[in-house]
Amino acid sequence: MPVATATRRFLASPLVDLLVGPHGIDRYLELIRPNLTLREARAEVVGVRRQTDRSVTLTLRPNQAWGGFSAGQFVPVGVEIDGVRRTRTYSPAGSQHGRDGAIELTVTSHADGVVSNHLRSQIAPGSILHLGPARGAFVLPAARPGKLVLISGGSGVTPVLSMVRTLCDEGHAGEITFVHYSRTSADALYRAEVEALAAAHPNLCCAFVATREGGGHVSAGAIAALAGDLDEAHAAVCGPPALIDAVRAIWDAVGAADRVLAETFTPPVPAPAGATATGTLRFLRSDQQAAIGAGTLLEQAEAAGLSPVFGCRMGICHTCTCRKSAGSVRNVLTGQTSAEEDEDIQLCISVPAGDVALEL
Amino acid sequence: MPTPHPQLTDEQIDALGRELDELRNRVFSDLGERDAAYIRRVIKTQRGLEIAGRGLLFAGFLPPAWIGGVAALSLSKILDNMEIGHNVMHGQYDWMKDPALDSKRFEWDTACPSDQWRHSHNYMHHTHTNVLGKDRDIGYGILRMSAGQPWRPRDLGNPISATLMAALFQWGIAAHDLEVERIEAGEIAFSDKREMLASIWRKGRRQVLKDYVAFPLLAGPGAPFVLAGNATANLTRNLWSFMIIFCGHFPEGTHEFTEEEAENETRGGWYLRQMLGSANLTGGRLFHILSGNLSHQIEHHLFPDIPAHRYAEIAVEVREMCERYGLPYNSGPLHRQFGSVIEKIVRLALPGGASGEPPPAAAAARGSLCAETT
User: Which residues of A touch B270 (CB under 8 A)?
Assistant: First the structure.
């Protein structure tokens, strides 16, 4: 191990950087093995398991460039599909103290999910995935709450499960109530794992509710029946917006809305082709916004008083290429619409197809 | 003198533009694994040649190792600059969303900083191709490469300047955006370019340190062999890239345009100017790869951000379009095209242009591209 550390230190030295310039050491190391990179976080898939018909659970072994995560955070995961690196964010389901920094991801696929379907059907042990730094404020307070109610809906189980597993690893003694809502009991993820944890940890109790099989939706009564008095309890909830609203209302009723930690996810919906887009353009760096008007994003940014760099204004020189953080745009030359987060687009040949946020 | 432009009606120019747009979209929607695998294979080959070349030069006191090392390192630098660097920085692989192949982040193994190159080349040259007074690639402000450029006594040295430029091409490219001729003419001040110069210095210094200090020192007593080997590899790359690039727009038969002609140009008109202003080189598959597929200069200028290894397939359709619209398709072997470039360099060392005709600016027809210039 000291040899490996010394080797890494040498490879990261300014001398080696000069010798392998301008490309950098990673561009050489990756040719030996794709996850040998020093600066780019990558992970090898070491386990693949399918818990339900619509999901896949991957165990990843990240390389030493990976900076870890806190329970509840999400991680950008990149996978190459037909030559294109597609990046989606997933919340790890395992403990933040996982062995060798292992990451467990559970991905639920949906009909038109290019990435989720690929991960479910094509990824095998040995595959390499790209990782971005973990992000997100859906994390437990550093001083762990004495009483915690963790509520999840559908695939929102993963960050909440990560919290449970992390607390168990930490030997946390406080009372934890775990409630998971799924459409059917066949869709319920991680039931056996959570029940086994509960059996081993007397301070953890759990409930699995199948809403389409007679189980009720979340209510003050149902939560109180499991967790008892909510006066001192903190809540962490992850799931569809309706679930979050309902949980907030329950805590609001006892005057404790500030003790609810919540995260939701709603996939972006691109506007149908040909439709005139309405919505807002947000220019993040200049902290400005404008209603969607006529013309390309370059023209609209200029109309809003910004001066983005540009060149040919006809899509050939790539000078105006800009990071789009969110939103959907249409390429006027090809007519293709794209709603991916954090992708680079050419402003001079892109028109908004809905709300758009640009790094301008 | 400027070759008369072929006569097409506005409708024909628009129709040509639509056909080329359709071709462009067809190729774009087909990009995928095949293209990703191709560029990665080229990169792997380049890195392999680089490591082999540097390794062999450490044993450079043995003549076969020195020759092999220079050959491998030269090929590595040629691949790095042309099929990889030039093409990646055009955005040909941006669709892959791989940060290592991203046009805005890519840096190449040459003195020119990539951001300056993207401005002078991707934008200035590719947008204003062959427009006299706007496309600084017509002589790079140093050579007289068009009869339309006024003759100055120093142009007598055109052949010598060209030879020097070929030998030091990477530095010529790096100095491209400094616009030395405008500083000379007093249009801009030297201080306007201080920042740019600093950036060239930062990049160039590391290139020099790497090839002429660090690697030779690592070789210990073999330092002179490594130094000479690296210098020879850089020279080989410079001469090769100069030759290929000068065959792109200067061989006999390529068209030049006035600023008036390029004004209010339609998309079809822009395509037409690219076709008329570029020239191809014929050769085998390896030759095309080593030229960065700039041997398909016509296709490259029509579609600068389509992965270059596709140009050979695209060329079949472009050639057919040229025949159908009665347009020239300037293509020939390297010796012929480069021969005509040398002839031009020598000819333009003297006042005037070919056959003693008047410069084009005086006689250029105003307005549309279909107007014949004499």
Answer: 314
